[in-house]
Amino acid sequence: MPGKPVEVVAQQGDLTTVTSDLVVVDAFEGVESFGGVTKAVDEASGGALSRILAAGDFKGKFKESVMVHPAQGGAKRVLLAGLGPVDKLTLDKVRRVSAVVARRARDLGAREAHVALLGVGGAGLAPRDVAEAMAEGALLGLYKFDAYKGVKKQEKTDERPQLARIVLLDKRATSARQAAEGAQVGSVIAQATNQCRDWAQWSGDDAAPSLYGDRVVALAREHGLKATVLDKREMEGLGMGGVLAVARGSVREPRFCVLDHHPRGAKHTVVLVGKGITFDSGGISIKPAEGMENMRMDKSGASAVMAAVVAAKRLKLPLRVVALAPFTDNLPSGSAYKPGDVVTTMSGKTIEVVNTDAEGRVILSDALHYAGRYDPAAIVELSTLTGGCIVAVGHHAIAGMGNSEPLLDALREAGSAVHERIWPLPFFDEYGEMVKSQVADVKNSAGRIASSVTAGKFLEHFVGDHPWVHLDIASTAYHEGATPRFNEEYCPEKSTGVGVRLLVRWMRDFKAPKKAKA
Ligand code: BES
Ligand code: MN
Ligand code: ZN
């Protein structure tokens, strides 16, 4: 059994007198003497921290830390954490240090840790924002996917005291109140991100399309949302030829899932679309064996959009948010769709199948068309769409493109704020020529060159005139081994949950962009 989830809260309180397994205070790089709460805690614990500083054993470098066991006061341990130079502190650094601190607390076997609002004194960051970033960093950094670990291993870890709570403390009533709000919001967003990580990570029997349908229904029940899950027959009724074609290769039937947050009085609707390939073998155009196991993550986009709706609901965002995701395997079999096939999609447009491994765009054709029924102010679609995305941008950016510059700009701003950064790819009309087909309206592959862009151009056929942005998250949804990855302090190996924090940030700041075409 996995332990109870850790809780992060903020309260008014005094770190110099609190009884705690672990008290955490901070300092910037190059300080000669401590100020604020760090000074107070140092004095209360008999000057141990200033002796370390005087000895030159702590420089305040980013993520540096030292620990003391004071002879007096209520703290069993005091950890001094470095934040780096005061003029270089960002919320993302706060998030990262918070993750380091939380993991340290867990590894020490602390049941409860009491932590100062990192960097609030000195760097001029708002207590609310800092607490939000700290809650995110801690809960994201503590995430572990151990659903498939054997019983023994789980029992062993259960022997240690479990970290139950991280309490952010501030002496001032106003800051503490603001921090409490921030910690709550940050916790909601981190929990949604961790949910996305689980959903993206499950494999084998747990990754059946029908189970995702059940999970979407369960989410709706738990959070008071509306879910609609279409089965194969209903999809046939709607003529969702794209999803059905890809699904033909598997004995497991597809699902088309809708999760709807519809608050009273909402003025705008945004539709979030996610690719939900439960396993991408490539189909008849089968992939090489090496690394194929990772293609269980091909449902990362779908996982992100569902989680984002849950967060929107829990944060009571005054916006209608609809997540759409087709879920299906992409497998080879005697009934699988084949290169050369022509598929008629829900929109009536036809697709020439050149390569069955370009399946994401085939299922998304129906989802993007379906999005139109909500008359959305914006469609944002997240997909692990192309290997070419990784070739183009590595693991430090999401590739973005679409028909609305203001929408792309707004998403880029949100992405920068949460450190899930988007970089645009060229999206000139000329690239659209590359997906023209001799036999159908569009073909699903234009080969290797500019493959991320031509994938986007394919999708554009099914969007209509709604403002739309396609985010290729093949680069950032999954990391393994020695490949450089972004924010490793709070992004574990494998599924990162990318997209959830970005979408939530964007929805919180939502302004309706203009229609793409008049
Ligand atoms: N799911 C893959 C893209 C992918 C590759 C995601 C590696 C993450 C890591 C997608 O369905 C795919 O196979 N794309 C092909 C398209 C090609 C056949 C036009 C690709 O990018 O190679
Ligand atoms: Mn594929
Ligand atoms: Zn795929």
What does this structure look like?
- It is a single chain.
- The protein is of the alpha/beta class and 518 residues long.
- It has two domains: 7-170, 3-Layer(aba) Sandwich (Leucine Aminopeptidase, subunit E, domain 1), CATH 3.40.220; 192-394 and 413-420 and 430-508, Aminopeptidase (3-Layer(aba) Sandwich), CATH 3.40.630.
- Helix content is 37%, strand content 19%.
- The chain has helices spanning 36-44, 48-54, 91-108, 120-123, 127-141, 151-158, 173-201, 209-223, 232-238, 241-247, 300-314, 360-371, 387-393, 405-418, 429-433, 451-460, 500-508; strands at residues 7-12, 22-27, 65-68, 78-82, 112-116, 165-170, 226-230, 255-261, 269-274, 276-280, 320-330, 342-344, 350-352, 378-383, 398-402, 422-424, 442-443, 468-472, 478-479, 494-495.
- The strands form four sheets. Strands 7, 8, 9, 10, 11, 14, 15, 16 and 18 form a nine-stranded mixed sheet that branches. A six-stranded mixed sheet has the order 1-6-5-2-4-3, with helices on both faces.
- Helix 11 links the parallel strand 10 (276-280) and strand 11 (320-330).
- The protein starts with 6 loop residues before the first strand and ends in a 10-residue tail after the last helix.
- The relative contact order is 0.11.
- Ligand BES is lined by residues 280, 298, 355, 357-360, 384-388, 445, 451, 474.
